[in-house]
């Protein structure tokens, strides 16, 4: 039998192992904890990919300013393709936010992590906002003119322009849909990282 001090053995454990040993539902807690960290890493990757995709699209579009009408039409199609790639990265960024929220919700549901549950409840509205952003991609069909939720897409009016409905756009580091916008800059990831870190600190305080 090992004569190692149990306290020292526990202290030297990897944090994931500690979560597993302490939880009333070890496998669920371990899965949610490790997936939360993975989804946070995915969000970091995605926000970087958004910046890269936008820079590439801006550069390519700016480099092509043809005056021939036929060339202009071709350039417009190319711009659609380039910025379409940006929207793909934005979609996966929003998914990462929601995946973080889901894993936090799982951990918060376990009775031993009541401190984490209280913190999660204090920030869940922020996650809900990004879940709504994700829904503009995954439930777009409901928001189109023939859709059951088309009324959610409100008209906006720019200066010196008539009313219009926005079904996806980019402006000053934000993704826009209807009359709403969501930050997609690295600052938004810093906010996500801060909330996840604080949440996990509340998990770790009891292990």
Order of helices and strands: HHHHHHEEEEEH
Uncertain residue segments: none
Task: Report the major sheet.
Answer: 3 strands, antiparallel
Please provide the count of β strands: 5
pLDDT averaged over residues: 82
Which strand-content bin applies to the residues? 5-15%
Radius of gyration: 22 Å
Number of helices: 7
Fraction of residues in helices?
55-70%
Short description:
With 207 residues, the chain is mainly alpha-helical. The chain has helices spanning 6-11, 15-22, 26-62, 69-108, 114-138, 140-143, 186-204, and strands spanning 155-157, 163-165, 169-171, 174-177, 180-183.
Describe this structure in words.
The structure is a single chain. The longest helix has 40 residues, at 69-108. Strand 1 and strand 2 form a beta hairpin. With 207 residues, the protein is mainly α. It has a three-stranded antiparallel β-sheet, with helices on one face. A two-stranded antiparallel ribbon has the order 1-2. The chain contains seven helices and five strands. 23% of the residues are buried.
Topology record:
Layout: H1 6-11, H2 15-22, H3 26-62, H4 69-108, H5 114-138, H6 140-143, E1 155-157, E2 163-165, E3 169-171, E4 174-177, E5 180-183, H7 186-204
Helix pairs in contact: 2-3, 3-4, 3-7, 4-5, 4-7, 5-7
């Amino acid at each position: 039998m090992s004569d190692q001090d149990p306290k020292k053995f526990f202290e030297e454990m990897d944090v994931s192992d500690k979560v597993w040993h302490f939880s009333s539902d070890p496998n669920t807690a371990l899965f949610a904890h490790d997936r939360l960290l993975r989804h946070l890493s995915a969000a970091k990757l995605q926000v970087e990919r958004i910046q890269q995709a936008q820079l590439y699209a801006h550069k390519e579009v700016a480099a092509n300013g043809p005056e021939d009408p036929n060339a202009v039409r071709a350039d417009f199609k190319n711009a659609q393709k380039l910025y379409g790639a940006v929207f793909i990265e934005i979609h996966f960024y929003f998914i990462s936010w929601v995946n973080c929220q889901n894993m936090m919700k799982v951990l918060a549901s376990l009775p031993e992590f009541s401190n984490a549950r209280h913190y999660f409840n204090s920030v869940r509205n922020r996650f809900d906002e990004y879940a709504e952003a994700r829904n503009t991609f995954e439930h777009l069909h409901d928001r189109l003119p023939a859709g059951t939720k088309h009324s959610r897409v409100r008209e906006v009016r720019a200066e010196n322009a008539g009313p219009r409905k926005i079904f996806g756009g980019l402006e000053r580091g934000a993704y826009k849909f209807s009359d709403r916008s969501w930050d997609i800059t690295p600052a938004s990831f810093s906010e996500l990282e801060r909330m996840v870190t604080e949440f996990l600190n509340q998990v770790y305080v009891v292990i």
